[in-house]
Design brief:
The complex is a heterodimer.
Chain A lengths: L28 H15 L6 E5 L7 H4 L3 E4 L5 H11 L4 E7 H7 L1 H10 L4 E6 L2 E2 L5 E2 L24 H8 L3 E6 L3 H13 L4 E6 L12 H4 L1 E2 L8 H10 L4 E7 L15 H7 L3
Parallel strand pairs in A: 1-2, 1-3, 3-4, 4-8, 7-8, 9-10
Antiparallel strand pairs in A: 5-6, 7-10
Helix pairs in contact in A: 1-7, 4-5, 5-6, 6-9
Chain B lengths: L12 H28 L3 H24 L35 H25 L3 H25 L21
Helix pairs in contact in B: 1-2, 2-3, 3-4
Classes of the chains: A alpha/beta, B mainly alpha.
């Protein structure tokens, strides 16, 4: 687990960069950025010891808008990049952020194995149930009857992916859902996720006002989960499978051992070159 | 998600001023964020309005800081403020924002935020047993009420939005 100071020395504003987000006005991702920076301030981390890693998509632009180290990586590959970083530099606080398409489709296999490996990371999925950057195609979490895209004029006809249940089955050590319309609650969940050792999965329902304008209704339909956080996977599974995907809260806190391989103290350039010699 | 206020739980002047400072700062940040987004999305008139609201918010935050001079304000985690389950009351609501919104709609959005701020301060003034907190909260509530009045006058200078105000001849289209 990352060492955390008790008293914040930096404010949320200190964790925001000077770049103006290009997200659509009204996009939920603004709130997630606010939640993330508030959480970093509350955690008392330092900018030079924190990294935000992303893949590709609207939400994956977030490293540019934070004032910590960042890596805007390849589509679907944020998790392997972050795992490599955390394994090599266990002293860093590593946050992974991205969208539902990037995380569950292009990066779906990495998602499964990141849960299974249980490296000490926090994965924030800003889930708007659509590919926004490419102008509104159905994503893995899109409802089966969503017919607003010309690519799926009769809906996808496919059951949506259930990210939290999959995360639980694959071995994630902390599982939560929050809502961009509750930025302070989301900041709290992100803080708890970072503090908890192991792979922490936070699904943030983040409305896409351009391609899923009906998600504005989330303001009234999303509610706090009637759940007591459990460390029993079977109880969490039963609860998750019965839920409609609009309940927020921390659903599962596990105690699996964190994957933390021993590192060589140092490796010379000669040794590295020798490994690649043809 | 409701925005339940538990303003009776503010016990000291320092706690109250910490709330007021955060309320004003977050209002300013929210307005600036929308102003920047409008500038990026080529709605300069509305962008300038929101940036102006942000400047007002920073000015009010400075006034709260002046009142807090010599006091040590407590650190309060974002989720522990007396506006439970949501944002601070004067933060403009992002779900009412649209890249083609008109000045009248921007002013209406600001008016709603100011009304919520008024509601917060009025509820503190009513609930607090601390005379100094009651005095400050009453004063701040009166200021917010004045902001609402000014915005009500200001919005009259703009026409109501057309019925097709959000029509975009080149929309962020679906793939053909």
């Amino acid at each position: 687990m990352t060492a955390i100071n008790e008293t914040p020395t930096l404010t949320a504003g200190d964790f925001k960069s000077d770049y103006r987000p290009v997200w659509c006005p009204g996009c939920g991702h603004y709130s997630v950025l606010s939640s993330l920076t508030k959480a970093l301030a509350e955690l008392g981390v330092t900018r030079e010891n924190t990294a935000v890693i992303s893949g590709i998509g609207c939400s994956s632009r977030i490293p540019a808008y934070t004032n910590v180290y960042g890596f805007h990586s390849v589509h679907g590959r944020a998790l392997p990049v972050a795992i490599g970083l955390k394994v090599a530099r266990p002293d860093l606080t590593v946050i992974v952020a991205g969208g539902d398409g990037d995380g569950y489709s292009i990066g779906g296999n990495h998602f499964l194995h990141a849960c299974r490996r249980n490296v000490d990371l926090t994965y924030i999925v800003m889930d708007n149930q659509v590919y926004g950057m490419t102008k509104g195609q159905a994503s893995p979490t899109t409802p089966a009857d969503w017919n607003r895209s010309k690519l799926t004029p009769h809906g996808t006809g496919v059951s949506p992916f259930h990210p939290l249940a999959v995360a639980l089955a694959a071995g994630a050590n902390f599982i939560a859902r929050s809502f961009a319309g509750d930025p302070n609650g989301t900041a709290r969940v992100i803080s708890e996720a970072v503090r908890h050792p192991g792979f922490a999965m936070v699904q943030v329902l983040s409305p896409c006002v351009t391609y899923q304008p009906e998600q504005k209704e989330w303001k009234t339909t999303v509610r706090k989960a009637d759940i007591v956080t459990t460390s029993e996977p079977d109880l969490a599974a039963r609860w998750l499978m019965a839920d409609d995907g609009l309940s927020t809260g921390v659903m599962y806190v596990g105690h699996r051992p964190v994957y933390r391989p021993d590192l060589e103290t140092s490796v010379g350039v000669d040794a590295l070159e020798a490994a690649f010699a043809v | 998600m409701n925005d339940t206020k538990i303003s009776g739980e503010i016990h000291t002047v320092e706690e109250f001023l910490a709330h007021a400072l955060t309320l004003e700062n977050e209002a300013a940040e929210g307005y600036q964020e929308i102003g920047d987004a409008m500038a990026v999305h080529n709605n300069p008139e509305v962008a300038e309005l929101f940036c102006r609201f942000a400047r007002y918010g920073r000015k009010h935050a400075d006034e709260v800081k002046s009142l807090a001079a010599g006091l040590t304000l407590p650190h309060i985690a974002p989720w522990d403020f007396a506006w439970q389950n949501g944002e601070s009351p004067e933060t403009p609501s992002m779900d009412k924002v649209h890249y083609l919104m008109t000045p009248a709609q921007a002013l209406t959005l600001a008016m709603r935020a100011e009304r919520q701020a008024y509601g917060f301060y009025a509820s503190v003034a009513e609930a607090s047993r601390n005379p100094r907190i009651r005095e400050l909260a009453t004063e701040f509530a009166a200021e917010e009420a004045e902001h609402v009045r000014l915005l009500t006058e200001w919005v009259k200078k703009y026409p109501d939005p057309d019925q097709d105000w959000d029509f975009d001849p080149d929309p962020p289209g679906m793939p053909e």
